[in-house]
Design a protein that fits this description.
Layout lengths: L1 H9 L2 H20 L5 H18 L4 H18 L4 H24 L1 E2 L2 E5 L6 H25 L4 H19 L5 H20 L6 H34 L1
Antiparallel strand pairs: 1-2
Length: about 240
């Protein structure tokens, strides 16, 4: 309880405003666009809350990420976005579990509320990207066989999701940039669906909010990285 109180005290006014604006935009779009699925609403709200914790380097964000992956995987099933469903249930959820383990093993100076940020080599970034490309090619044929809607965008989503998940496990600030790319892809993916069903506009708004949060996540992690480096140098 004491750690939880300490965490909420550490949240800045800007972060509260960002979270509040994200929640408000999602709720308003849900109501105004006539979406009747509260599963969509719950998933989106869990998602933006997840991103605030992740931006703070707090492992709670990865626990929430597991819940979001399950919600979003189920949401994606109904419009035949099988790529999203498989990616989040079979990849993002396990990746969030792996991130929980990795982050708990690498706290900054023993603080469970802040992960120790990692510096990856250019070689690792490249190898991770090549691995992501390989997984994406394999997924393309699987998704095509399943009759996935908007196949190309769904396939690109696999690439950005896998790369982002890998970087998140490895505790790299670049995870946020990869998720920004994924957010743009998902905005396009759900925009295509909302043309025929305006109720899905709320999902577009959801990932627009995610994009803003991930941009802030990158800024926050770069700031934490500088502080951690300075603290380590003093020690």
């Amino acid at each position: 309880m004491r750690r939880l109180k300490s965490f909420f005290k550490s949240i800045t006014v800007f972060e509260y405003c960002l979270w509040g604006a994200s929640v408000l935009s999602i709720v308003l779009s849900f109501v105004l666009c006539g979406n009747k699925s509260y599963l969509n609403l719950c998933g989106a709200l869990i998602g933006v809350t997840t991103l605030i914790f992740i931006a703070k380097g707090n492992v709670i964000g990865n626990f929430l990420g597991i819940a979001f992956a399950v919600f979003y995987g189920v949401i994606s099933y109904f419009p035949r976005y099988y790529g999203e469903m498989i990616t989040y249930l079979a990849m993002s959820a396990p990746a969030s579990i792996a991130s929980v383990v990795a982050w708990l093993k690498h706290p900054f100076q023993g603080k469970k509320t802040e992960v120790k940020i990692n510096r990856l080599s250019i070689k690792e970034y490249l190898l991770a990207f090549l691995l992501s490309c390989g997984v994406t090619v394999a997924f393309y044929f699987i998704l095509r066989a399943l009759g996935t809607a908007n196949l190309i965008w769904s396939t690109v989503s696999v690439l950005t999701s896998f790369y982002a998940a890998y970087l998140n496990i490895r505790r790299s600030p670049a995870y946020a940039l990869a998720y920004c790319a994924n957010d743009v892809v998902l905005m396009a993916l759900w925009s295509l669906l909302s043309v025929s069903d305006p109720a899905y506009v709320c999902m577009v708004v959801c990932f627009a909010a995610f994009l803003l949060n991930d941009v802030y996540g990158f800024v926050s992690w770069m700031r934490m990285q500088r502080k951690q480096s300075a603290t380590t140098a003093q020690d």
